[in-house]
Design brief:
Blueprint: H1 15-32, H2 36-47, E1 51-52, H3 55-68, H4 70-73, H5 77-90, E2 93-94, E3 96-102, E4 107-114, E5 117-118, E6 129-134
């Protein structure tokens, strides 16, 4: 994707949160290299059984991901967004995972959002036109 980003300021993360974040980043890398149709298929499978993420959960996951990965802290928006969604899923939740574009100038971007609002992103809702979304699905009660 082509969204220019200033690398996030490095933060600290508790050791017990570092390992899951590193695992999410490692899992996100091969997923991000798949064709878009397969990315959607993999993420759709991963979200099964998860409850919708709260904004605080998604933001904490995103911050953990950018803390442990220089690639995700910089211009790696696809891997960052996938890793954020995967880390949320490890915690039993799922944010809406989105990709989209804008014109003039053309930019493509991937991000997560909760309740229609981008999480941890420097742009407002609607800045990008959503192209592909793997949304959170409320659990079905039996």
């Amino acid at each position: 994707m082509s969204q220019p980003m200033v690398p996030a300021a490095p933060g600290s993360i508790a050791f017990r949160h570092r390992l899951p974040a590193l695992l999410a980043v490692a899992l996100a890398r091969p997923i991000a290299q798949l064709p878009p149709r397969r990315i959607r298929r993999v993420l759709t499978l991963l979200r099964r059984g998860a409850r919708p993420a709260a904004t605080a959960q998604a933001l904490a996951a995103r911050q953990a991901v950018v803390t442990v990965s220089a690639r995700c802290a910089g211009e790696g928006c696809l891997q960052r967004s996938v890793a954020t969604a995967v880390l949320c899923r490890m915690r039993g939740a799922w944010p809406d995972w989105c990709t989209g574009v804008r014109t003039e100038p053309f930019r493509a971007h991937a991000w997560v959002e909760v309740g229609g609002e981008p999480v941890g992103e420097p742009f407002p809702a609607g800045y990008y036109s959503r192209i592909m979304v793997v949304s959170s699905v409320p659990r079905q009660r039996s």
